[in-house]
Amino acid sequence: MEDSNTREKILKGAEGLFLKYGVRSISMDDIARQLSVSKKTLYQHFADKEDIVTLVCQSLLEENQREIEAAHEQSENAIDELARLSLCMKKNVEDMNPSLLYDLQKYYPKAWAVWQDFKQRCVHESIKRNVDQGIAEGYYRPEINAEIVSIMRMALVEIGFDDKTFPQDRFRLGEVQMQIFDHFVYGVVTEKGRKLYLKCKEDKPAEIIK
């Protein structure tokens, strides 16, 4: 590997392993073997495994933030934004190991803090803004408390990763998260919003909007 690209390639390789197998089960040896480099090379670029985990988490969440912002900028209304976000979510969780969030919370406090910051700073504000917009447009029920609903939405996302609630041998993460997403949508929309949501889902192209 070119030295200038080594750091980025290590992070990308580790990201693929973490998403597929979870974080705890992947060792520095596994990362080195996957990339055909020595452990010495890893430690030349990163302090330890937690350093890699934290940086991978930051990279993934920065990409998620770009997707959230793009969905908002490209949408015609609050419902259209939700349809775009559902496509992004489907892509992002399709092959993700459900143990990922649990591993971060239990074993990697720095990376977990990055997720918590992202959840509050980006996701919470995005949901709250979308709900306020949807109410103003007449697509969401006017009695909804945007603050409470946004907190509920974030909690439900995390529940979808909980192996005790949705055991991996019985449930697929992608299906669980999409069911939770639709449950959220149908809980907030008016009849006008429901009809538009169904239409948006049918009209959206199969590819994910970047």
Q: What does this 3D model show about the protein?
A:
This protein is mostly helical. The chain has one domain (3-203): Tetracycline Repressor, domain 2, CATH 1.10.357.10. The chain is built from ten helices and no strands. It has helices at 3-21, 28-35, 39-45, 49-74, 78-93, 100-107, 109-137, 146-159, 173-188, 191-203. Helix 5 (78-93) packs antiparallel against helix 9 and helix 7 (109-137) crosses helix 8. It is elongated, with a radius of gyration of 19 Å. The protein starts with a helix and ends in a 7-residue tail after the last helix.
Short description:
The protein is an all-alpha fold and 210 residues long. The protein contains 10 helices and no strands. The model is unreliable at 206-210 (pLDDT under 50).
Question: What are the main properties of this structure?
Answer:
mainly alpha; Tetracycline Repressor, domain 2; elongated; disordered C terminus
CATH class: Mainly Alpha
- By oligomeric state, this entry counts as single chain
Q: Give the percentage of residues in beta strands.
A: under 5%
Apparent shape: elongated
Structural class per helix/strand content? mainly alpha
Order of helices and strands: HHHHHHHHHH
Write the layout of secondary structure elements.
Elements: H1 3-21, H2 28-35, H3 39-45, H4 49-74, H5 78-93, H6 100-107, H7 109-137, H8 146-159, H9 173-188, H10 191-203
Helix pairs in contact: 1-2, 1-4, 4-5, 4-7, 5-7, 5-9, 5-10, 6-7, 7-8
